[in-house]
Amino acid sequence: MAANPHLEELNDRSREVFRRLVEAYLETGEPVGSRSLTRTLSEKVSAATIRNVMQDLEIMGLLNSPHVSAGRVPTELGLRLFVDGLLEISNLTDDDRRKIDATVTSNQADVSTLMDRIGSALSGITAGASLVLTPKHAETPIKHIEFVYLGPDRALVVLVFADGHVENRVFQPPLGQTASSMREAGNFINAIAEGKTLAELRDAIEVEIKARRQELDQLAQELIENGVALWADPGVGEERLIVRGRANLLAHGGDEANLERIMRLFDDLERKRDIAEFLTLAEEGDGVRIFIGSENQLFSLSGSSLVVSPYMNADRRIIGAVGVIGPTRLNYGRIVPIVDYTAQLVGKLISDRG
């Protein structure tokens, strides 16, 4: 079974069958059979042909048969593939916009009251549970940080603040990161996190990077002066120390030990650069995010989905989030623009109030 299938692996017929089936499931919540799909496909094919396609999609892990009936439903993996590659986002309707706008018509209400109104409006409009994280009034020190590997191009950072506040943000990690390297990054940051804000943590790691860089330069300089090694692309992110030949090291007593130390410094420098980039990405992560089923790290609710978007203040800093929680068969195409618009509205509201 494919662990992470891509749309490119599906031919046109399989892609249309998959898309139509998921759309029908999201609308009805019921298993979808081959006969009902024959009426919606642009290409006229037999029910038997569609059943063969559905079987292939099931082998790929995209569909599942909940009962002995011929009907299929999308798996969490299938929903993720649909959301990432086939979901058509509708425009926010005038009616939905009016209902959201109506929650902030009064300038007299305090922020807490307004956030309660927005949560109620989101719940009423979407028929789901609403999520509203109210803004932080000041930067709070980090108590604990954890990076969760979600795939080659997605990661979750869990930020636990000293005041007990918890935030979850999704970001795109640097290429080549693994679950192990993310755990290592979290362990390093937690060792120096006490009493520091996210920005202060990033500054502290930058200081560490500069110190390692200076130490590396001093050690490498002796090898270069002795003609044993040379810099390639010095001073940029991808610099390399090229050793001209191990035979030369034997003529310079302690050079081999220094070289091993330099290689360790290279590794350490690269790890700290990755960690610094993690923190930058975690601080900048934004946009509407969709967590499906077991991906829902924020609540660990089985069989639920979370559509969430952070909102920002006038300085473009994330200060809170709004979202909708519901079953995995949410009408994602409608709810995404609702959450996105609400987050932008709340961010503007908070910015206008200073």
Describe the structure.
The chain folds into 3 domains: 7-85, Winged helix-like DNA-binding domain superfamily/Winged helix DNA-binding domain (Arc Repressor Mutant, subunit A), CATH 1.10.10.10; 94-135 and 313-352, no CATH class; 142-284, no CATH class. The strands form 4 sheets. The chain has a 4-stranded antiparallel sheet with strand order 3-11-10-9. It has helices at residues 12-28, 34-38, 47-59, 76-85, 94-101, 111-126, 179-192, 198-225, 246-250, 255-284, 332-352, and strands spanning 63-64, 73-74, 129-133, 142-151, 154-161, 166-171, 229-232, 240-243, 289-292, 304-312, 318-327. It has 354 residues and is an alpha+beta fold. The chain is 47% helix and 18% strand. It is built from 11 helices and 11 strands. It is flat and about 75 Å long. 28% of the residues are buried.
